[in-house]
Design a protein that fits this description.
This protein is of the alpha+beta class. The chain has a domain of 133 residues. It is built from three helices and nine strands; from the N terminus they run αβββαββββββα. Strands 2-3-8-7-6 form a five-stranded antiparallel β-sheet, with no helix packed on it. A four-stranded antiparallel β-sheet has the order 1-9-4-5.
Amino acid sequence: MAKGAAVRPLRFFRGHSATQSLCVMRKNRLVPVLVVLIAALVPMACEGPAGPPGPPGNANVISFSFTLNPETLRYNGPVASVGYDVPEITPSVVEGGAVLLYFYEQGTWTALPYTFAYESADLPAVDFTVTLGYAFEVGFLEVFYEASTDEIDLRQLALVQTPRQLKVVIIDGFPAGKAPVDLRDYEAVKAYFGLVD
């Protein structure tokens, strides 16, 4: 015991022995703990009226349209491409979501990649193909045309030199491999995710 320390006598509740007093003290500590536990559980059992409905759509899905202009294409052999900064393509989208791209032609949205076939005027056979495709990474989307042969000058093809309306659908937290909807069908994707054109 330290020098100068005061010794305090045990106080007993009136009419109780030391053992009985200890039990009373333990009970007194237990009561506030029980009050706190009950107070914490009571709000969980309460229910109030339902809130107003939220806006239509899906919080983890973004969709927008843009035009692929031929003037913006960069040419490299059989490939013509253009890159876009798309901050909505996050690491979460790349790792566990989906980026879908569609082009508009003849009144319908068609999923990419899509391959156009060019037939010879002389023979009913395909001479070459041109694929309209895309690639993406965090913050970036690239759209490209790729010919099946180096002998084709994409600058001379009306297909490549025509502006195209494109629509991108970015889905966060959606494993595309387990999709309950045909992702190649824009109308089905639009209906499933509640997208508005």
